[in-house]
Backbone:
């Protein structure tokens, strides 16, 4: 019986798991994990290096960030804030290996990262009654049992990364106070203040903290990526006047503070005070920042020079493409694009899917 494209894609989201032809052929190449929304609800999906859909696993709600185990076997998918689920999937076939729920008094804030040896998973969480951020610590060998937490040293922690020393976590504390009783409402916009904190994962000690100028206290540090040399790229969202034109991209190092970068005025206006995702490329020589409200992906050198931009309507997710100096991109309009990729087909279009905010390179 013939199956048309629409039925095929919807079917990929149905049932507990859908395995797609081509999975075995793709085992040797890169694959990318991205959450998405389709007619049958929310899912986490894997794409191969040519943009083909490998598998799709339903989620209990909208997913946000993904973290890949350094051993290449597992991928942790975290609920969108203020969600309470975290699923650990098998990268090979998408099967659910572990289902976690946030502990009482906490909810997940959208992102997680594995320790360098893969023994622990660290997830940003909200201690919502105390109005403070924490980092939950999960023991991988013990079935991802939560074995404690450390402070994030800020309010509203979102994305976090691990530095090359193997023990310093970099945390984007966006500064926005929330409470699950009020959904995603922002409760402290008049007094909010972001902080980029460098936290020792072993004991929770604050190693360094960088804050924005007082005049930019409504600029929320949301997403970060880290290059091999310890340079942190920042993608931010402004909670002040919509008419304001403020820098939304920055660079930082633990001992050297934070530096805001200027994009051309026309692009700054088009970004509409909102960056969605950031990633260094495989060489660490440049990074990409998405601005989905403006339909832009903007490219910068690792030393902070504006390079170029690409038009991509509602494009948000960015990930490094390990086959060169480019990136994998996806959009809320169902497109998947590989940059700097001569000879590869694209863009790929999935008309029944809305790719979500983030993409993770999974091998």
Residues:
């Amino acid at each position: 019986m013939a199956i048309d494209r629409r039925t095929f894609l919807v079917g990929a989201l149905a049932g507990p798991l859908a395995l797609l032809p081509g999975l075995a052929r793709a085992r040797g190449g890169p694959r990318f994990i991205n959450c998405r929304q389709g007619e049958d609800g929310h899912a986490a999906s894997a794409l191969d290096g040519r943009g083909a859909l490998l598998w799709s696993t339903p989620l209990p709600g909208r997913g946000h960030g993904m973290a890949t185990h350094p051993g290449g076997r597992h991928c942790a998918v975290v609920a969108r804030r203020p969600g309470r689920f975290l699923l650990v999937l098998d990268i090979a076939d998408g099967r659910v290996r572990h289902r976690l729920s946030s502990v009482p008094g906490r909810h997940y804030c959208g992102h997680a990262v594995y320790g360098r040896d893969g023994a622990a998973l660290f997830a940003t969480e909200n201690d919502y009654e105390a109005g403070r951020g924490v980092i939950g610590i999960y023991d991988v060998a013990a079935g991802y049992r939560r074995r404690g937490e450390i402070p994030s040293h800020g309010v509203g922690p979102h994305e976090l990364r691990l530095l090359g020393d193997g023990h310093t976590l970099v945390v984007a504390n966006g500064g926005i106070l929330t409470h699950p009783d009020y959904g995603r409402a922002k409760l402290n916009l008049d007094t909010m203040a972001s902080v980029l904190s460098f936290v020792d994962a072993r004991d929770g000690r604050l190693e360094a903290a960088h804050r924005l100028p007082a005049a930019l206290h409504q600029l929320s540090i949301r997403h970060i990526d880290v290059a091999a040399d310890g340079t942190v790229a920042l993608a931010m969202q402004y909670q002040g006047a919509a008419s304001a034109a403020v820098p939304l991209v920055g660079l930082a190092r633990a001992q050297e503070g934070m530096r805001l970068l200027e994009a051309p005025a026309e692009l700054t206006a088009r970004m509409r005070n909102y960056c969605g995702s950031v990633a260094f490329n495989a060489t660490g020589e440049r990074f990409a920042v998405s601005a989905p409200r403006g339909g832009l992906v903007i490219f910068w050198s690792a030393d902070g020079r504006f390079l170029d931009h690409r038009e991509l309507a509602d494009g948000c997710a960015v990930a490094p493409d390990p086959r060169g100096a480019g990136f994998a991109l996806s959009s809320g309009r169902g497109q998947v694009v590989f940059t700097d990729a001569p000879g590869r087909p694209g863009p790929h279009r999935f008309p029944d899917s809305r790719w979500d905010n983030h993409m993770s390179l999974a091998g």
